[in-house]
Design goal:
The protein is mostly helical and 65 residues long. The protein has 2 helices and no strands.
Length: 65
C-alpha cells in the first residue's frame, strides 16, 4: 500500500467528520469490503480502516476545543 492511499483515507475521514458523519460511518466497515480469506488483503483493509478512523478522530478532536 502506498502512503498516498493512506493519506487519502485520512483526508476522507476528516472530510466525513466535517460533513457530520459518525465514527461508525467508516466506509471501510462495510462487510463486503472486509476480506476474510487473505491475510495480506486483511492487512491492507485494516490500514485503510485505521487511516479513515485517524482522520475522523483528528477532526473530531479539533472540534472539541
Amino acid at each position: 500500500m502506498e502512503i498516498e492511499e493512506l493519506l487519502d483515507m485520512q483526508e476522507r475521514g476528516i472530510r466525513d467528520r466535517v460533513l457530520g458523519y459518525t465514527l461508525s460511518d467508516n466506509p471501510m466497515s462495510r462487510p463486503e469490503l472486509m476480506p476474510i480469506r487473505d491475510a495480506t488483503a486483511l492487512e491492507v483493509w485494516y490500514a485503510r480502516y485505521e487511516a479513515w478512523r485517524f482522520g475522523w478522530s483528528v477532526e473530531d478532536a479539533s472540534r472539541r476545543h
